[in-house]
Amino acid sequence: MLYLRLFWEFFKTGLFAVGGGMATIPFLYNMADATGWFTRNDIANMIAVGESTPGPIGVNMATYVGYVTGGSVGGVPAAVLGAAVATLGLVTPSIIIILIIASFLKSFRNNRYVENAFYGLRPASTGLIAAAGLSVVVSNLFFAETLDQGFSLAFFNWKGWILAAVLWTLTNKVKQTKGLHPILFILASAVAGVVFSM
Description:
The chain is mainly α. Helix content is 78%, strand content 0%. It is built from nine helices and no strands. It has helices at 2-16, 25-35, 40-52, 57-103, 105-109, 112-141, 158-172, 175-178, 182-195.
């Protein structure tokens, strides 16, 4: 039953997350609330790991969630099966849609309704990606759970602010580090996260 639900949850995510991997993040927040498989804080960690590893971020996160969820009920073999089921659930809608479009490609190519539909999807996917980016910023720079105690300095994640300021300075102001490859900053941020328990 768990694997069927894993497949279904990620199938829905893959079906409606138009605009790439970052567009899956709002769906993951809903999934976290609905299933309890992971927390909102775990999503920030998944994004960090998913962005710094090879492959599409949505697939990386589906694989991770499936692995953790499957492993919680039956060890490593169940974790691998959970990872495969969740990943398959996420990519299946895309495969189906591409196969359908490919079979009708000639008639779709100049169809103004299809052109208009894709034109209308652009702002929707932009909004999903912007919402995902904003939620990542908020979850890394603020402690939302402390807001119910009143607005105070405890609301700010000072480690996150300091890391963001250092990265901004190194990528925009310091001449020697300005042209370095982004992967170096990603690796340095990962090390800082481990060292400073971020």
